[in-house]
Amino acid sequence: MSDGEIYLARLSAWAPGIAGSAEWDEWALGKRSIARESKGPELAYTDPMFRRRLSQIAKMTVQVVHDLLPLREDAKIFFLSLRGELSRQYQINKMMIEEGELSPAAFSLSVFNAPVALATMAFALKGGYVALHPGNNSFIAGLKAAEAALLCGTTEEVALVYVDENVPPEYRCFFPDPPPAPLAFGVLLSRNHRPLSVPLSLVKKEDNPPDFLKQLLLCGDIHVAP
């Protein structure tokens, strides 16, 4: 039964150069780095025709949602990204400048909610989703939106999924040097206590997504799902 607390019931994560729970723990301790490259997960469990069209951010989103499964039928996904489909947006802009027209298929895969929409399609999820680009790049704003959905009592659990892909070379002048590394992680938030779940109130609320993930891993009670 719910006791008014929100619990972190499950954690998934994916990034280039990091494999497995032990390596994620090393990353949290500063002993391992994420590779700044555009590689995505293999997604061998999906149809080849489906995955061949996916960008890095879409593949990362599909992977972390997959690792959070199974979800309740009514569980909603809160998708949070600070940069979105950067690579596809660059290609769209380039096409507009050079050709003066857009491919409908390319445009449909470049919109902000495309990664989470593709993930729900991949696993036939029916709980719906919310795509969030928080003001001031605030991860905590996205977390509060997911918490609010639980506290209003309309569902027992929600999935919060944060994903940002590698920064394309053409856009690196707009970011610090080095630019942020690609990273995806998902947390299952629940109103009900489960074995090995962690009360959200005990986790330090970091506004930078990598720092928030490090806090989860450093608390010692929750690990990345295999």
Note down, in words, how this protein is organized:
This protein has 226 residues and is of the alpha/beta class. The chain has one domain: Peroxisomal Thiolase, Chain A, domain 1 (3-Layer(aba) Sandwich). The chain has eight helices and six strands. It has a six-stranded mixed beta sheet, with helices on both faces. Helix 1 packs across helix 8. It is globular and about 60 Å long. The two termini are 27 Å apart. The model has no long low-confidence stretch (mean pLDDT 91).
Name the descriptors.
226 residues, alpha/beta, Peroxisomal Thiolase, Chain A, domain 1, 34% helix
Quick overview:
With 226 residues, the protein is of the alpha/beta class.
Give the biggest sheet.
6 strands, mixed
Instruction: State the CATH architecture.
Output: 3-Layer(aba) Sandwich
CATH level 3 topology? Peroxisomal Thiolase, Chain A, domain 1
Query: What gross morphology would you assign?
Result: globular
Poorly predicted segments: none
Output mean pLDDT.
Answer: 91
Number of domains: 1
- Class by helix and strand content? alpha/beta
CATH superfamily: Thiolase/Chalcone synthase
Q: Which class in CATH terms?
A: Alpha Beta
**Tally of contiguous helical segments:** 8
Output the helix-strand order: EHHHEHHHEHEEEH
The neighbouring-strand order within the major sheet is: 3-2-4-5-1-6
